[in-house]
Fold:
Amino acid sequence: MIEFIQSLRPAYEIYKKTLVFQLTPEQSAQLQNVHREIFGRNVPNCSTCVIESVFSLLIWADQKALELAQLADDEQKPKRKRK
Structure:
């Protein structure tokens, strides 16, 4: 799920330059499903709201990726220094 959301970043960056946000039909359907799973509601219909939703998902994915990286780092056993 995080990978999919982060895969939307290039489309979002293009949107910031051209003000055109374009997804494939498969990406659009998956975006609807992911948004519903995370936020508990459908993606809004207005164009500005869709962009805000995608931006919120990107922030959420970045935070989750950071949490997972920290958890993975915490699970590694610290090495003992030899005297």
